[in-house]
Amino acid sequence: MIVKVNVVNYNEYWIELFEVEAKNLKVILGDQQVDIHHIGSTSVPGLRAKPIIDIMPVVHRIDLVDTYNPQMERLGYECMGEFGMPGRRYFRKGGDDRTHQIHIFEAGDVNVARHLAFRDYLRTHPEDAAKYASLKTELAQKFPNDIQSYSYGKDALVKEIEAKALTWYEGQKS
């Protein structure tokens, strides 16, 4: 399967796509849902991104999420289980032309703060957001049909920004 790497200019419509899907997820998750967040590059105004909406519901009990797989499939999602990240439930929609990714975590999971810190840091630190956007654009041009090389190429910068973001985020909560 060849996944096309397509980084595009920010689109305000991404907010609406998130909101529509968040409502659908709330119906499915019901009282299990603690919160739901738009994460990833499409959640950062002005940031170039692959046009895939990343959504992070936070639930009371991660072990109950698998019981919702039939409803998620009816919404068009492929249920991927933990998909390499213990404690997460991952769902993707759109096949080769992916449109949405769902990353569900239990309340208190360290990955919730990690994702929110990265998003909020990029929203408030335009220099790092621009550096990240530039690298993503360069990698998408260099590896238009190689998502693994694209992801690998971002890894060092993502880790660098994430470390700064987590320190900053903890300072914001004090």
Describe the structure concisely.
The chain is of the alpha+beta class. The mean pLDDT is 96.
Helix/strand layout:
Elements: H1 13-29, E1 33-39, E2 53-59, H2 69-74, E3 77-79, E4 88-93, E5 100-106, H3 110-124, H4 126-142, H5 147-173
Parallel strand pairs: 2-5
Antiparallel strand pairs: 1-2, 3-4, 4-5
InterPro entries: GrpB/CoaE (IPR007344), NT_sf (IPR043519)
Pfam families: GrpB
Protein name: GrpB family protein
Task: Please describe what this structure looks like.
The chain has 174 residues and is an alpha+beta fold. It has a single domain (13-173), classed as Beta Polymerase, domain 2, CATH 3.30.460. Helices cover 47% and strands 17% of the residues. It has a five-stranded mixed beta sheet, with helices on both faces. A hairpin with an 8-residue loop joins β3 (77-79) and β4 (88-93). α4 (126-142) packs antiparallel against α5. The radius of gyration is 16 Å and the shape is globular. The model has no long low-confidence stretch (mean pLDDT 96).
Q: Unreliable stretches, pLDDT < 50, 5 or more residues?
A: none
Query: End-to-end distance, in Å?
Result: 46 Å
Biggest sheet layout: 5 strands, mixed
Q: Would you identify the CATH H-level superfamily?
A: Beta Polymerase, domain 2
- Written as H for each helix and E for each strand, in order along the chain, the element string is HEEHEEEHHH
CATH class group:
Alpha Beta
Structural class by sheet pairing and helices: alpha+beta
Helix percentage range: 40-55%
Average pLDDT across residues? 96
Strand order of the largest sheet: 1-2-5-4-3
From the coordinates shown, what is the CATH architecture? Answer: 2-Layer Sandwich
Got a strand count? 5
* Tally of domains: 1
Strand content bin? 15-25%
Tell me, briefly, the overall form: globular
And the CATH topology?
Answer: Beta Polymerase, domain 2
Gyration radius (Cα, Å) is 16 Å
Helix count, DSSP H or I runs of 4 or more residues = 5
